[in-house]
Amino acid sequence: MIIFMIIFFSNFLLVVKSTYEINIYRSKNLSKKKTIYTKDVILVMAASFFFMFSTMFVNPLINGYAKSLGASSAFAGLIVGIMSIAAMFLRPVAGNMTDKFSKYRLSLIGGILILIGVIGYVFSPSGSWLLLFRLINGAGYVLCTVCMTTWLAFLVPRQHVGEAMGFYGLMNALAMALAPALAINIYQKIGYREAIISSAVAAFLMVIAIQFVGDHAKPSKKVQRENKKKKFKIIQWNVLPVAILTTLFALPYFSTQADLVTYVEQRHLNIAVGSYFLIYAVVLLAIRIGLKNLFDTVRFGVWLWISTVSTVFYILMLTIMKNNWEMALAAAGMAMGYGIIYSVLQSTALLLAPINEQGLASSTFYLGLDIGMSLGPILSGVVDSLLPIKWFYPVQLFIIPLIVLIYLCYRKRLDGAIDHH
After folding, report:
1. What would the pLDDT profile of 76-123 be if each residue is shown by its tens digit?
2. CB-CB neighbours of 99 under 10 Å
């Protein structure tokens, strides 16, 4: 199985290399327009896939693994959740650091921390050690998410940030869809410890990939001087409405990620629920390739309305679904809803912030995501315990009027982001 993982990652790198060569060929022979997909951009995207794959591979295994080491259900739950809780406190620190230091150096530190954390999982003798290495892994994950988003935005022209974030988000979405599916299949065949080695391989490949990036994204001397005078900030205020919208759109997504299997079991549905997020990833891939640079030219409000309507659609489809076709429609709706708005919100956050606070803008965006990731499963657990299962998804429609209200309050700022190039 470890050989299989190495082959899988090797093939992924070949795809990345081929994509880079194709884009170079097109830029030279088919158009005078310079491609944004340079070697550095492709490598940062590949590295982002690897670190996200590493993290998402472990997530579905950590609860069962903790219990197998003797942890109680409550302590196992703490081990699972401690990463998201720690992330909320570490985000502002990572954001401020990203604006002051080389993106390469911080990404390298983050990658090494992830690698140490994952290797620590493999050798942990008890739940207490697992908790420690989970915190180390979480610190690395926070650094990588903030740094690599900012690094990528640094590498492309300001007017192409939306397109770059679209494909960056696609790398993350593919990792989030493939990693859990592979993790469950591999662990069932070879066990927890052996399966987690695959996560370590992915983290190692992330560290290797960034060694070949030429531009280390060091802040300019002017930015460094500005940042020395700047006080420590927890959030980038211009990005606050983006963070709130990120939380609202993330709530039903992470609720579905955590509880879809249980929801299907409680409703006694005979559907291939394991395919849900794979369908989501395939549809998202098609959408991102089809839309291309529209992320840089279409105003925020258009995307928000498309995503809001799509969110209503997929929540209703999950409410009424009884077969695989309806499940596939729900997954496609989620790709049109959460999948699109994720990238739009991420690029809007960067465009709304001044150039010397790109790291802080990224950390503010991810803070909204962390809150949604933590609250989604908690709120769905409360709903499941208080209401009949048929109300599990309809209740989640409460986010829709809140999304519309936030947008209307900050419409001028959000729609104007595209003009901040």
Report:
1. 878 877 887 787 788 888 777 777 788 888 899 999 999 999 999 999
2. 29
